[in-house]
Amino acid sequence: MRAAYYDKAKDLLSREDFENRIREKQTEWGGLLDEDAAARLVLDQLGRGDLNVQTVRELREGMEVTLRVRVDAVTPIREFPRQDGNTGRVVNLDISDGSGRCRLVLWDDDISLVEKGRVRVGSTLRVLDCFVKVGRFGTEVSRGKFGTVLVEG
Predict the structure, then answer these.
(1) Burial letters for 118-142: b for 16+ Cβ neighbours within 10 Å, e otherwise?
(2) What is the pLDDT of residues 79-137, one digit of tens each?
(3) Cα 90 from chain centroid (whole Å)
């Protein structure tokens, strides 16, 4: 299967460079990606990926989406008590693309993206396999258990 991925990029880099980027991507993700997933991310970085990216305007309650968006605003990080007695944390990002605006909600561990300065106003994000709900502040996107938020710039 990896040969099919490499075929999409063979005019851009050697097979060895492609394989090295796959290994680097796996290391970057702490070994959580298999080789196919890492290869797809490498292709996407090269502009040769097959991601089906939706626009903010297309978002509807219950959808699972992939978006490429810009961060327009970051709210302060808030802490709150959970029912189990633990403390939860949340931060809201106002995001947009050329079609509209909505909110991206980051919970708990994802807050480190903001704390470490990787996500800030002006950042470009790729939001993969995240879910959509309509909340009291309008349309919201959350990462959920299997989603990912990638910082592109």
Answers:
(1) ebeeebebbbbebbbeeeeeebbbb
(2) 999 999 999 999 999 999 999 999 999 999 899 999 999 999 999 998 988 999 998 88
(3) 17
> Judging by DSSP bridges, how do beta strands 138-142 and 100-107 pair with one another?
parallel
Q: What domains are there in the chain, each with its CATH number?
A: 2-45 (no CATH), 56-151 (2.40.50.140)
How is residue 79 written in tokens? 């802490």
Q: Are 121 and 74 in contact (CB under 8 A)?
A: yes
* CA separation, residue 84 to residues 47, 108, 109 (Å): 44, 15, 17
Q: Determine contact, residues 39/49, Cβ cutoff 8 Å.
A: no
Is the pLDDT at 1 greater than 60? The verdict is no
Distance CA 39, CA 91 (A): 31
CA dihedral (37, 29, 74, 133) positive or negative: positive
- Is residue 56 within 8 A of residue 32, CB to CB? The reply is no
pLDDT for 53 equals 83
